């Protein structure tokens, strides 16, 4: 029964990822913690391993399409990994009620951010720009430069810390900043973030694996669920209205956050 | 780079098969397929970074190769700690 739940959780997390552009962590961790009553550390560890799975598949696809800015990804990943590893060492020592409280607060932040999400801005540079990618939709080469790299490093470090501590990917923080502040095109920001998230999650997961928090059977089913879910999500996203889905999802996030906060403090 | 895409997918599906073997408690020479599957899955991103070190070195892009190498060292230190 628990494997079926893990499979369904993987599907839902992946559908939400495809529709709303978020990683699976903010769904997998509370779902496993509430539905399977797993301790927070186990839920975080399984979530991180599943994020590695989805990142591998997405990165494999994006490399083919040449959407990843590897220069930027590698540079930012250095500080991200260090902070993620440090956070995962802290997380295995923290009381799980504190982790639940932190996660609940983070969910409220994500819900607010999703509700108030600013319009994405696409500012393309001239042909002299350092980077470019081919946009199949508009059938032209898009040129861009990276602005404010220091802010990108700081934000990536915070995302890495939260990833190791709470079992999230961190894309929900990184992508809007890379796009809005660093002026990286949305597709490149999203693809590069997916690659980085996999490396960060792998680094933290190894710490959890050594401490025995990963349950391989559940990782298998959440990962397989994520594989199916991404295909279903892409199909739905062609037909469904994103605004409606977003509002429903914000409500679900708020309820989940309240439940986790209640469990943490009551 | 395209070969890397196939390599990543191959690693993912291998790890899934090993995890399934571990779940079904298949025993071949006492190998723990659960652990093997998990390590293949979690070490795949490190393999990816290693590939980038070699790829950029081959392209004589020393700056990127050095950054990838430092990242690989950080990740390896994490494994050895």
Contiguous low-pLDDT stretches of chain A (5 residues minimum) are none
Sheet with the most strands: spatial strand order of chain A = 1-2
* Estimated helix fraction of chain B: over 70%
Strand elements of chain B, count? 0
Quaternary structure? heterodimer
- First-residue to last-residue Cα separation of chain A: 29 Å
Which structural class do you get from the secondary structure elements of chain A? Answer: mainly alpha
What is the 3D shape of chain B? elongated
What is the number of strand segments of chain A? 2
Following the backbone from N to C, one meets helices and strands of chain A in this order, namely HHHHHEEHHHHH
Could you estimate the helical fraction of the residues of chain A in percent?
Answer: over 70%
User: Which regions of chain B have little confidence, pLDDT < 50, spanning 5+ residues?
Assistant: none
Class by SSE composition of chain B? mainly alpha
Mean pLDDT of chain A: 80
Q: What would you call the shape of chain A?
A: globular
The major beta sheet of chain A can be summarized as: 2 strands, antiparallel
Strand content of chain B: under 5%
What does this molecule look like?
- The complex is a heterodimer of chains A (266) and B (81).
- Chain A is mainly alpha-helical.
- Chain A is 74% helix and 4% strand.
- Chain A has 10 helices and 2 strands, in the order H-H-H-H-H-E-E-H-H-H-H-H.
- Chain A has helices spanning 2-20, 25-35, 40-64, 70-91, 96-115, 149-166, 171-180, 186-210, 216-239, 242-265; strands spanning 131-135, 140-144.
- Chain A has a two-stranded antiparallel sheet with strand order 1-2.
- In chain A, strand 1 (131-135) and strand 2 form a beta hairpin.
- The radius of gyration of chain A is 18 Å and the shape is globular.
- With 81 residues, chain B is mainly alpha-helical.
- Chain B is built from 3 helices and no strands.
- In chain B, 83% of the residues lie in helices and 0% in strands.
- The interface between A and B is large, with 37 and 37 residues.
